[in-house]
Design brief:
Shape: elongated
Distance between the termini: 98 Å
Structural class: mainly alpha
Largest sheet: none
Number of strands: 0
Strand content: under 5%
Radius of gyration: 37 Å
Number of helices: 2
Amino acid sequence: MSFTPRPSGRTVLSTTRARQGLTGRHVFWVLIFGTLLAALGLFAAWTWYAPELSSANTDNGTVPAQHFDAPQPASPTQQTSPTGP
């Protein structure tokens, strides 16, 4: 097999340079409009469900606490240290 050189009219880029994308104004506008649409969607969902969420827990589901009949704890006793030699 013989080696054939690349055509001289092509630009040769390094691997790192070839993998880097160019950012332009179009990327900026896509991010801006995407963020605005997401915020608008969240606001619309909040507005749609606000009346339902405000009246969901009118009684707060209060249930009296259970009373447990546990015996009184034993009275405390003072501990004495053992006498050393």
